Each structure stands twice: as C-alpha cells, then as structure tokens.
Amino acid sequence: MLDKRQFYINGAWVAPVMPNDLEVINPATEQPVAVISLGNAEDVDKAVSAARAAFEMFSETSVEERVTLLERIISICDRRAPEMDEAIRLEMGAPKTFANEQQTPAATGHLQATLEALKSHSFERKSPRGGSLLRSEPIGVCGLITPWNWPINQIAAKVAPALAAGCTMILKPSEVAPLSALLFAEILHEAGCPAGVFNLVNGDGPGVGMALSSHPDIDMISFTGSTRAGISVSQNAAPTIKRVALELGGKSPNILFADADLESAVQFSISSCFSNSGQSCDAPTRLLVERSVYDKVTALAGEAAGNTQVGDPAETGDHIGPVISDRQYQTIQSHIERGLASGARLVAGGPGKPEGLETGYYVRPTVFADVTNEMPLAQNEIFGPVLVMIPFESEEDAISIANDTPYGLAAYVQTGDPERAKRVSRKLRAGSVYINGASPDWDVPFGGYKQSGNGREYGQFGLEDFLELKAITG
Fold first, then answer.
1. Which helix (H) or strand (E) holds 419?
2. Does the model's pTM come out above 0.85?
3. Residues sharing a CB contact under 8 Å with residue 309, sequence separation 6 or more, in sequence order
4. What is the crossing angle of helices 262-274 and 294-306, to 10°?
5. What pLDDT is stored for residue 394 in this prediction?
6. Which of 11, 132, 284, 337 is close enough to 473 for a disulfide, judged by CB 3.0 to 4.6 Å?
C-alpha cells in the first residue's frame, strides 16, 4: 500500500500538523491502495503563508518565464503519462483504455490551451478611447478545490491558468481520489515551480475546504463539485468578499428530433451518458425524444444499453468500470428504486450489480422510459450510468422541457436540419450546447447557467478568471 501522508508546502514534502490517516480505496476491488492524511486549518495556514510569501516574487515574473515553466510541465506530463494512467485507475476505477485516451490527456490539453492563451494575452492595452492604460494583474493567492470524477482534468484546468496569470495557490484535491494530484505535485516540483507558488494539502470539506474558502489571506476560490457544496463554499467565502468561481452539477438535456440519424444518435446518447460510468457533470442524462420516433428510439436505447460492457478497470477495452465508492453506489441504487416506484418504465438495467461483478462498486447500465420531467429521476443529478427518456411533441415543447431544470451546464441537440440545430441551441439555457455529437477543443469556455455555477474555465476564458483588471489614467 502506498504511503502518501505528506503534503506539498513551500516546495517540500512535509508531515501534517496532526496525523489523521485515511485509506484510498480502489473501487474495483474495495481494497485500500494508499493511505493519506487529512489536513486541518493549521496545515492550511502554513500553505497560505507560503503562497502569500511567494506571490510578491511570482506575480512579477515575465510572460516568458511563465511560458517556459508551462512548457517544462507539459514535457514532464507527457513523460509520466503512464504513471498518471495508473493513478487514476487505482483511485477512481477508470478503465486503462479510458484513462489513457480520455482522463490523462486532459492535463496536457489544458496546459497547452493555457500556454497558447498566455502567449496571446495582452496584459497591458489601451482603453477603447485611448485615454487610459488597462492592465491585467494576477488576483493573488488562490484556493483550488477539485473533485474525484475527472481528477487531473479539473486540477490542470485550475492550476494551469493560475500559474499563467502569476498567481500562487493551494490545491485541495478530493480526498477520495488524491493520487493523481500528488503525482501532479511531483511533476510541478520536477519542472522547477518556485517554492510556495504551488501547494497541496489533502483533506475533506469540513477540515480543509472550509478553511480555504473562509481564509482571509486567500483572494479567490475556484471550486468544482456538487451544487450543495458550492453553496457552502460561497457562504464561507462571503465574509471576506473573495472571488468565487464555481463549476457545479448538471442534468443535461439531449434533444433528439425525428429527422436525425436515429441509430447513430442513440448510440452517441448511450455512450455519452454512460461514459466514465455516468460520473460526468455534463453527461446527457435526459434524452428528450420526438413523439413520432419515441418507440423506435426506446427500443434502440434498450439494445445499446444492453450491449454496454462493464468490467475490470485493469483490463484494456471500451467497457466502463465501477463508480467511485460504496456511498455513491448506494445513492445510485436509491435513485433507481425510486424511479421504479414512481412509475417510470425500466427498459434496461435496474437495481443491483452486473452478473459476475459481485466485488467492486459496479452499477448496471440503466435506462428508464416514460419519464415525466417532474419526476425526481428527471430533476436530480444521479451521477451514475442511468439515462431517462422523455417524449416531446414539438420543437417548442422540447425547449421548454430542456430548460425546466435548476441546472444549466450543458445541452445536446441531434437533428438533420442545421437551421433547426442553431435555432434551438440559441434558446437553450446552458453554458455549452453540443450539436450532433460534436466535441469542443480545450480552448472553448466551460461553465454553467443557473445552479450549475458561474465563471468559465479553459483557455483564454480560464486565464481571465484569475486576473484582476486595473485602469491607469493620467
């Protein structure tokens, strides 16, 4: 079992102020693979002091210096990618192929997009009428709180722009999946990141998350996680009026019109919903289907779900793995049971584990039909491989159902009519809209409307989140 009890503070690996061991569980085996220590407010104080002391120097570095640092980090990330694949597999059960092709490359993707943004950003420019100088400056010391479902993706999406802006930072990764974060700290150390610029303190929300979000010497909190936790972060941050950037939950609609290529559209809908074992905040979990093809699409969805393979993350292949924990498994089972009790029609999957997978937190890929948008199945973020199907009568009806949610992170439109695709996309209240299975690049802004958060990450938009704008006149 790996011993990962130390924190990374002021350029060195240090012991926690007070040891508080927590085992990291491999969700495929239900066995511990590592032990970390949970920090407390004193550990946070040490990290914040280091970051505050380093800010004066690092905030004055040149763009060229920060470009060179990011380039070194990218090179080391590429070399150590196999280690990152393995860390993500062990901590969250991502299958080897998925970790290698989707999870790990996200780090380099964000670093590259941020590097391009840094090179092109005008840190000093004239005001529109030319009478003043507008200057972008780093916001200061930043607290970064990241989730377990796409661990290195969200870490890189925050650390890269913070470094590019000239900020210093304290990272609190999810205590459930901390191994990729600890490896990333090693990468930054090897790249020569100056002492105190990047710090890492493991811990839970009450012990470290609250200490970060309420700390008077932290200027900004960037948080990704549940809407419930995001509310708590905002409340804790309010007394110190720090900037708060939030990327929260979602219940994304996927509108399927009758003029789409139904077979490919349904295959995309199922694979996208179940990808990462359904543990993605922007997953298309509500499939809205035009009434005239509803029965056909239901049959196709049931078949596609039945063909979805679930298996051991240690093996290569296109299968999905377990969900993150026993707690998450039980939560998903409760949603499935409530869906059955509410009268939704089970098309595929259902309660319990897939046959032959009694050990591990595996969930049967599940599809419900005849769901109404008022049902809890359609309103609650389940965060597992569970798809709900809702029929609609017209384009206006589809838009109304799609927007009838407290969330607004992403939306999907599938149609053979390009003009309809653009027309509907403009009316959807979501931060991202994906048409006919298109995938965005790393420089496209990511974030949500309504209770899905505020602010935007990725590329130039992520860089701007970590900058203050100063006007100099006269």
1. helix 418-427
2. yes
3. 317, 318, 319, 320
4. 50
5. 98
6. 132
